[in-house]
Amino acid sequence: MTTSLLVLAAIMAVVVGWLLRQTLNVKPWVSQRPVVTVDGDGAFQLPTVKVGLWVFLAVATSLFALLISAYHMRMMEADWTRLSLPKVLWLNTAVLILSSLAMHWTLAAARRGQTDGVRTGLIAAGVFAFSFLAGQLWAWQQLNASGYFVAANPANAFFYLLTALHGLHLLGGLWVWGRTTVKVLRGAEVAKVRLSVELCTLYWHYLLLVWLVLFAVLLQTHT
Amino acid sequence: MTSVTHDESDYVPPAEVEEPELYHPKTFVGKYIWSQDAKVIAVQYAITAIGVGLVALVLSGIMRLQLGFPHTFSFINPSNYLQFVTMHGMIMVIYLLTALFLGGFGNYLIPLMVGARDMVFPYVNMVSYWVYLFAVLLLMASFFVPGGPTGSGWTLYPPQAILSGTPGANWGIILMLISLAFFIIGFTMGGLNYVVTVLQARTRGMTLMRLPLTVWGIFMATILALLAFPALFVSAIMMTLDQALGTSFFMPALVSRGEHLAYNGGSPILFQHLFWFFGHPEVYIVALPAFGIVSDLISVHARKNIFGYRMMVWAILAIGGLSFIVWAHHMYVSGMNPYFGFFFATTTLIIAIPTALKVYNWVLTLWRGNIHLTVPMLFAIGFVFTFINGGLTGLFLGNVPVDIPLSGTMFVVAHFHMVMAVSPVLVVFGAIYHWYPKITGRMLNDTLGKFHFWVTFLGTYAIYYPMHYLGFLGVPRRYYAMGTTVFIPESAQTLNEAITIAALIVGAIQVVFIYNLIWSYFNGKPAGGNPWRATTLEWQTPDTPPKHGNFGKELPVVYRWAYDYSVPGAAEDFIPQNQPPGRKAKGLEKTVDAGDLGAQKLDATGTPKPVGG
């Protein structure tokens, strides 16, 4: 559980650090100062949806950290066998990095207000993301073909579980991506989709980071 | 933050004047069924949670019948007894208490208390409720599937949870696990709303340290839940895979009924770590909202500011942080390195410090207060008593050498029912009696309320006090019948009968409460906007019950903390949070002359700049 505790400690440190920067030691019964800012006192100067996404990322981080903890604890049991990872995962990793880069490029285009750039970038990012998912399914297929279905051994079971949960998170992101892309294709102004693009970019980078960590954990125990 | 001197002329423009953009439903269905109004969603959550809680209450009555009068009832057999135990525990902890405190009170009180029009993501909030309802229906469906619901105990420990000897090992456990997964998904949607609303939607002037403690409690509990529920989610999915696809995450190699099962090498202890990594914070997910609400009830009904507000906030934060590093005290009997046990015993005892601090502050708030023994106050004081009793036995059980002999006995049942069942439920009742007038516009009947309180309060003591002694005698928990156990005296059975009678009376008397809720909705005394003369914003709304959008045209501006009761020199014994210094709250509606604006001007970012200073 060390991994989980470290991650949790980091999240808690952020929460407490932020609270301390607020007014936690103010004596509210003394101070009757009416206003600090217009948008609610001590609120983040960020769009509310973005704060919501950050909170969700903390929840997802807790989920993946717990999975990694469980993986390490299960490894200590006597029957653990090392897993040979399909080579295609390297390709998938590259594709996911490309997807993230395309998303980042889209964001830059959105900031410059270039409709064409946003359209191209979004489509490229989506195509790469779907390719990544297809590649993951292909990796499953390869493992299955060589006789390692989910119950074959615990390392395998974890491989399926981790990739499935990561893939589901990406699918959720693709749903938002889909709505944004449809808006852009129907000719919405860049300013109207800019926030959605920002959110997608943040989420894409986060999921890339999660995948890199998961892949590293899997590689570390690979034959 | 520097302190700013203020005088009569302090004026702050209201936070919002234009017509707010809210979803305006036109039909009855849009308004009350597919509603995006947090207040309606709150009532939906509350009714569903109380409904499913009544099912769990009936189950506990059946369990008590069996324990008090064994061999009398043919419809209770060992396997459905275990199913009733399991469903009772799981429903009460997750589907009643968690859903009611966060989904119910959280939804109703957060937007009103922080001065917001609604939750920040109303659509997600609505979906949250429907996912919760789906989870409840899945769970209830397990009563009707072949084999019935799971009987593995609410902790669902593998390997027994999915072995064929346990009731509900096929359908029941799968439905339970999937229902939990859906509950967690639904909760996460709601939880994002509660946290982000507190962070981002506070009205002008509502600094963190002016939040009522109710909001602090719910806020911190939601953070705990958001970070802890993933552990339950992960374990539910892994166990589903073990059961359905034959993986060996948790299942060791074992022989069941003479047959070698295909499982190999899994770790049941891994499940326990994951489960309790969620399970212990869960105690505080239920307790922190209760702490917050009870602080407000005591302050309002004792007409006195809460003692040590800052300490209360810090204690909530400390308890929240500590609750993540005590989980293994539920696992002493699983066997662990003695240094581990020492570590977890120490952290468990440390958590008593901020908790005791809160108890002292409640008592010191009551000290020399102008105590009104209203029904909410009775429940609040009842909570303090019960929580002290339940908390003290927790100190015993937190020590490894005390826990090991007591862990399998009724002592533990008595302990956690006092601290985690009766205590929060008393707060739930107190809170409903307190906020019902705001929700419906009518008061609950006082006489029925007092009757309900005294029977419930004394009755729960009649149930759980003697149960500690049963535990000392070695009466085991989870057992369908004691059989011929030599070391348990016959009098234990007599005590069990007495407990059952008390439990049935307390259970039956809840009908009075339900009757009161329904009767008062139509016939209760009209409450007016602020029957308890309270300071917090939910009592200052222009309409009671508040309309969609909560505060009419202008959002309130907050000038003070939530606890200005019996301020020396003030005209009344309470000053609402939105009352500017030196004038009536209503003054906001007056036209403002230039002199008022002169003292303080807002710059582009809204930061006040003293003029001529």
How does this model look, in words?
The complex is a heterodimer of chains A (223) and B (613). Chain A has helices spanning 2-21, 48-75, 88-112, 115-145, 154-185, 190-220. Chain A has 223 residues and is mainly α. In chain A, helix 2 packs antiparallel against helix 5 (154-185), helix 2 packs parallel to helix 6 (190-220) and helix 4 packs antiparallel against helix 5. Chain A starts with a helix and ends with a helix. In chain B, helix 7 (268-301) runs parallel beside helix 10 (352-366), helix 7 (268-301) runs antiparallel to helix 11 (375-397) and helix 7 packs across helix 13. By secondary structure, chain B is mostly helical. In chain B, the strands form 2 sheets. A two-stranded antiparallel sheet of chain B has the order 1-2. In chain B, strands 3-4 form a two-stranded antiparallel sheet. Chain B is globular. In chain B, strand 3 (600-602) and strand 4 form a beta hairpin. Helix content of chain B is 59%, strand content 2%. Classes of the chains: A mainly alpha (223), B mainly alpha (613). At the A-B interface, helix 1, helix 2 and helix 5 of A face helix 5, helix 6, helix 7 and helix 8 of B.
Largest sheet of chain B: 2 strands, antiparallel
Q: So how many helices of chain A? A: 6
Shape of chain B: globular
Shape of chain A: flat
Average pLDDT taken over every residue of chain A: 88
The strand count of chain B comes to: 4
**What's the helical proportion of residues of chain A?**
over 70%
Average predicted local confidence, pLDDT of chain B: 89
Helix/sheet category of chain A: mainly alpha
* Helix and strand sequence of chain A: HHHHHH
